[in-house]
Amino acid sequence: MGSITNGDDEALIHSLFSESSIIDGAENRDAKELASRFWVESKNLWHIVGPAIFSRVVNYSTNVISQAFGGHLGVAELAAISIAINVILGFSFGLLLGMASALETLCGQAFGAKRYDMLGIYMQRAWIVLFLCCILLLPIYIFAAPILKLLGQSDEVAELSELVALWLLSLLFGFGFLFPVQRFLQSQLKTFVIAWASLAALIVNLLSTWLVIYVWDLGVVGIIVALDISWWVSVLALYGYAMFGGCPETWTGFSFQAFSSLWEFIKLSVSSGVMLCLENLKNATLAVDALSICMSINGWKLMIPLSFFAGTGI
Predict the structure, then answer these.
(1) Can you tell me the mean pLDDT for 256-264?
(2) Domain span holding position 247
């Protein structure tokens, strides 16, 4: 009986070791499979996020460059440019960017479902909605001086800020066209096109701002015109790429179908826009120097998580 028991024990121990080996092997395979999947997903994500971070940081840097050059003109000029860009334009930027973010979901789903024609329809629909939103935002720019005086700014700074804001209207409508076409291209993984267009805009901004300040002496208005031009370089470059051969499957021309289901798109986009733009309303009456520095740094930082949100959405 003792020998039989010992044999049974040995068999049981051997069986347990065998099962343990099988379990360990399965766990190792699962771990390797998980690591492989993580690596593949990370590469796919960074393929989108890397150029997106670069383009967003570069685009935002054009605003910071304009403020830096404005500081060479005087304290009032720096204050006006900082308020107009960080508060007035910043509010519009957040609202329109948030509204355009609805395209990340819609275009990503349409591209994944191979309904390529719908990407162009969604982009046109976003253009319509964001253009209407830009019109609704006009009073903030037109009546910037009384609004800022109400918030406690001096008459000189408030009136100069209104002048800057009026010259920023071109940029406001540029956002309405730029953000949808960026999401249109991102959903097709054409993020490097966006990065190159942003780099071109930055170079144009540096050269044109230097010219208007140190060569042509055009002052505050010259700085803002240079900023407008640089952003429209991105708009026209991406628009030209998308419309003239860069996206043959997803862009089939303008369509009246873009005017359908506008209300559904408005509800989806406005909810996204409101959540983002409210962040720009905080501390709107801070001292100008603190506002300029803190909001510029915060804006740079914000470009990175926004890029990740875009990548995960796609």
Answers:
(1) 79
(2) 2-313
